[in-house]
Sequence to fold (790 residues):
Amino acid sequence: MVVFNFTLSEDGVAVLHDALACMFKFSDDVCLEARKDKLTLTTLNISKSAYVCYSFAANRFFSRYSFEGTPQQRDKFSCQLYIKSLLTIFRARQSGGASESRDGTSSIERCDVAIDDGDGKKSRLVARVSFRNGITASHSLPYEVKAPVHAKFNKEEASNHWTISSKTLRQLMDHFGPGIELLDINTNEDNRVVNFTCFTEKVQKRSGNDGEGNHHIVLMAITATDRYIVLKKPLHTNIAVEMDEFDDVEVEDKLHIIISVKDFRAILQHAQITSGELVTTYSNPGRPMKLSYGADGILCEFILMTIGEKDAMSQKHKAPRSSAAKAAAAPAQLDAASYRANSGTNSTNPQPIASNTAPKAKPSQHQSQDQSRHPGFEIRPQNPPPGTSRSTRSDSLFVGQYDDDQQWEPVNPEEEEEEEDNARLEWNTNSEPVRVVWS
Amino acid sequence: MRFKTDLKNIRTFSKLTAALNSLEKIAWMRLDDDTVRLTVIPATGSQVWASLSVDLIFENYQLQSNEANNTINLELPLQPLQRALKSASGSHHANLRLTKRDGAPMLSMTIHTTTKDTSSGPGGGLPSRSGGATRHNDDAWAADDSEIFHPESLELQMKRDREKVITQDIPVRVLHPETVETIMQPRVREADVHIQMPPLLQLKAISDRFTKLALTAASSTSSATADKTPKLELQANMHGSLRLRLHTDALDITSTWNDLTHPDLDPNELTMPIEEHPSTLFKQAGPEKWATVRVDGRDWSRVLSVGRLEGRVIGCFADDHALILYVYVPHHVDGGIGSDVVTYYVSSFSP
Fold:
């Protein structure tokens, strides 16, 4: 029996794909939660420091949406799937030019998705993608029936907030150099500015194959290592944005709030193609920060754990943590699940499921030990997920957009081979060349 | 010790930095009243001495030091500098000063810039903005315009954001004069051939091709102890020709450029009568008299990276000894060739 089904237009497929691609930067799997009035996608990253939640309104976002439920799950149905498989299904076939793909052969016309479940049936998500050329591709994905974990965010507590154009912020991120990990957002009432400061305490690793033995160039008087360390600090960047540029800004003066640059970049990348305005709400260091933006029928929310001041301090000084400091340090993870009362005020915040509390409680207990070692955010692998680069319409976050002088780069045969490997990945399974579409 | 300046010709500065960065990560920067000198000396490979007049890349230049001749010597990483300059490109105004942060010396670049809030992509509607913010915007521009005239683009018709102030701090080390006084610019004997090089983009494309070929050839013949440093042979005569040659066991290929020009030597600069100068002798010996140098393919590719400066390049060949490239940094403003020269010292390998 069909638990729920929906139909997406071509644009709907693209939007869903972009959302999943962004989510994939945080986690490998996604929880689908369907109700009568909306479909919610959520995920929590592995270090439990970032939570992503998208809500798609049943009557606005979908061409058709119907929820039947099951005898056990009458009001809502939830299951977990791999993001990667969903990305493959919803990937638009971008062969040929833009005009060709519109009226041409292989663009997606619509996509029907249904969850089929029940006694004696295999639990499957069935997606039927209809292309303009008349071909229909059916995909059947197994899923796990699983209640989602929702992060708690206390709106009352979070008194600091600002809103700004996501495009502006995204462009500003281009000024941050490589090798940075943390973003410190702080304000200065005297100058009426909000500062975005990027820094890292780690000494930058030298990349490239010409590194060894190269660093003792000019000078001899001082040992190579000394100079090496000093000069290998990455660029320290601060961007001051006048408060007038923000809408609805209200922030405690001199408050420093620190988050992971990588998470922030991932969010902005998606925000700028989705919406004009990014709304940010937070309270104190070591407490969660919420970033949200929306478009017609979609609400995207991210809850990031900020780094506690003590965490940052201990990181900075590399001092062994005393147990007292450990206790005092703010938890670097989001509080998971079962805090129903606190999230109640926010209607878009999906409600946690009581039955979920028990299994979730266990991991978070032994996580508390990890947390002393990783007060902040774990550094995730840098490989971009397959599919994201071609789906995101502007990738200039990661690509130098100023000078097109690749031709002057020194020859490097090894590197070139790598590039060729990557280039091969640009061919999708249909052996059609996939072009990256620049906007 | 004090150093503070506004930046101009950021593009040129940025391109120079990129060219140097391809050879070495850390540079020595020497500042005095008239000249900015940037030097990189890789452990292996070619060294570069760039000497620019202060006016080329700086304005409102202030320098104060206790050293003789009012000089400051800094050691700085090129990649962060390049990154900061990239950030500054397209800005309204940028300055650079020597300062300290947490006790550590820094070259701090302050950049005044705006973002372009162009609408693109779905859902990219411009954010609604209060009238007040827009009005402030206009005021800021009015104030700016009274002093400086920026090239205006069509974007002005769209909503302009307010100015952002970006600070990029580049870690540096301040060097003692004694540390650097022993570092001398190489001395090379009088060149046998001096010739204006063909467009470096051509030369680089072919050189890189040859280098890759050499590597492929080396890896396919299993017997050879994989030569990871393919050598290219460069030859020039005093009759307008330059040859690039790759010679391995398996193949022998040559590209030749003809009708190149030879700049005239200034007799006042010479230590010998011009009739006795090696280049005169080479010219008399006819077009089959070649001056030859052998260069490492990878290093040569890094050297040719200087082509991005789009300057005139003179190659001075000392047969079987060295090749010196003089890259004259073009002045986009006054069009003339000044004293701004980037000099590459490429040694020749023995055959």
